[in-house]
């Protein structure tokens, strides 16, 4: 059952666990100093609240190895997992509608 709010993930094992437990996971790789990341914050909160996807947030400064493992070079980067596999990677600020459509293409 996905949580109704973003899950702050610390480390690869924790992310693997979220991905294993949820059909669809939107992972937000962010940094506190990143302006576009702050603009994306209410969007990912809304998506966590009203979609069937789990939303994970990864602070790239605290989890540099994890960010590197997923090829994250800039923030925000959103990685979408479906059925335990990485299916999408979106770099940069996206609208809520675009992200909702993307999630629904995997959950619906």
Question: Residue ranges: pLDDT <50 for 5 or more in a row?
Answer: none
Radius of gyration from the CA trace?
12 Å
The CATH superfamily is: Glutaredoxin
CATH level-1 class = Alpha Beta
Class by alpha and beta content: alpha/beta
Count up the helices. 4
**Overall strand count:** 5
Summary keywords:
single chain, about 110 residues, alpha/beta, Glutaredoxin, five-stranded mixed β-sheet, 4 helices, 5 strands, about 40% helix
Outline of this structure?
By secondary structure, the chain is of the alpha/beta class.
Structure commentary:
- The protein is of the alpha/beta class.
- It has one domain (7-101): Glutaredoxin.
- 41% of the residues lie in helices and 27% in strands.
- It has four helices and five strands.
- Strands 1-3-2-4-5 form a five-stranded mixed sheet, sandwiched between helices.
- Strand 4 (77-82) and strand 5 form a beta hairpin.
SSE topology sketch:
Elements: E1 7-9, H1 12-21, E2 24-30, H2 35-50, E3 54-59, H3 64-69, E4 77-82, E5 85-91, H4 96-107
Parallel strand pairs: 1-3, 2-3
Antiparallel strand pairs: 2-4, 4-5
């Amino acid at each position: 059952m996905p949580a109704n709010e973003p899950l702050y993930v610390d480390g690869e094992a924790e992310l693997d666990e979220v991905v294993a437990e949820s059909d669809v996971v939107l992972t937000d790789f962010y940094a506190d100093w990143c302006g576009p990341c702050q603009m994306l914050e209410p969007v990912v909160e809304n998506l966590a609240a009203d979609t069937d996807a789990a939303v994970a947030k990864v602070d790239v400064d605290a989890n540099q190895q994890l960010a590197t493992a997923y090829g994250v070079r800039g923030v925000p980067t959103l990685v979408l997992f479906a059925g335990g596999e990485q299916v999408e990677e979106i770099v940069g600020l996206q609208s809520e509608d675009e992200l909702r459509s993307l999630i629904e293409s995997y959950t619906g």
